[in-house]
Specification:
single chain; alpha+beta; Beta-Lactamase; 3 domains; 6-stranded antiparallel beta sheet; 11 strands; about 30% helix
């Protein structure tokens, strides 16, 4: 794939979002998503499930896990008609991100990604999100607004209202640009995964023992842990990497928030996230859309030395 070097600013997605704001002459904290799409030369067509069939297989399953499709050749963004306003807003910024990044131009990356390596597809979507949120939450305004508020989910809710963004998108932007030692961890139910498939009509040596019996697969759960980390967004100063997939056991603030579906505040030992370090995070936990959002922070007086934390 050849990249037009005239439009290439580097490999960092935020550079392209910032350049667009400069080119558009945006000065305000609030950016209209449809103005951005219009500036990029796209028409938005909102479609219903009945209309979707007329576009053929090229656009994937828009009403499944993809809510929009960017068609560069047609200068068209197809948008599902069943989205809440704030999700529609971040979606249009996300699709604009795909258009801005030169290395995304060779393919329709807004498709579900069935024919793309899952790891590569995840990276592509993350890049479009980062470029899009750089436009949606202009950095200088967002930093000023965030720093004028306390480190708390209440502040994030206020920022979400000010920028007309979803709670989750605002959480990510807040964490990635924060000057504190903090992170936001999103935790979800630890659903069973398929670890082993056993066919009962084989004895393991290739011999059929029940020729007429239909095959069935036996699914074993990965573990008994009720929760697992979906992802973690963290500030530059946050020193501990919390991996996606980390399992969360019972008897901690996160589990209490999830099981009771209530706001919780307190301390969470680092061991809850699989660390051997002997320290505790300050934490807030919110139950939101069947997930637990966990705000973690440490004071600046806590300094990391090798295997432990010391105040």
């Amino acid at each position: 794939m050849k990249i037009n070097l005239d439009n290439y600013l580097g490999s960092k997605p935020f550079l392209y979002g910032r350049k667009l704001l400069k080119d558009m002459g945006v000065k305000s904290h609030y950016v209209n998503e449809r103005d951005v799409v219009d500036y990029l030369g796209y028409e938005i067509k909102t479609i219903t499930p009945a209309e979707y069939a007329g576009f053929g297989d090229v656009i994937g399953e828009i009403f499944d896990d993809t809510c929009a499709v960017l068609l560069r050749q047609q200068s068209l963004i197809l948008l599902a008609n069943n989205m809440p306003p704030r999700r529609e807003r971040i979606t249009l910024f996300h699709e604009s991100g795909h258009d801005l990044l030169p290395w995304h131009h060779a393919n329709a990356f807004s498709l579900r990604g069935k024919d793309i390596d899952p790891t590569a597809h995840k990276q592509i979507e993350r890049e479009a999100f980062l470029a899009g949120t750089e436009i949606m939450y202009p950095l200088k305004h967002f930093l000023d607004d965030a720093r004028s508020r306390s480190l708390a989910f209440q502040s994030i809710n206020g920022l979400a209202d000010r920028y007309n963004g979803s709670f989750e998108a605002t959480c990510i932007r807040y964490a990635l640009t924060n000057h504190n030692i903090m992170a936001i961890v999103v935790v979800k139910e630890n659903t069973p995964i398929e670890e082993q498939i056993t066919f009962l009509n084989s004895n393991g040596n290739g011999q059929l023992i029940f020729p007429n019996m239909p095959k069935f697969k036996k699914i074993k759960p990965a573990s008994t842990a009720p929760l697992r980390v979906q992802y973690c967004s963290h500030a530059h100063k946050f020193p501990k990497f919390i991996k996606s997939g980390t399992e969360i056991e019972k008897n901690n603030l996160i589990y209490e928030c999830w099981s009771q579906q209530q706001y919780k505040q307190g301390e969470i030992p680092a061991s809850v996230f699989g660390s051997s370090a002997q320290f505790k995070y300050f934490a807030e936990c919110i139950y939101h859309q069947q997930k637990v959002f966990v705000l973690l922070w440490l004071t600046d007086r806590q300094i990391y030395f090798g295997e432990g934390w010391y105040s």
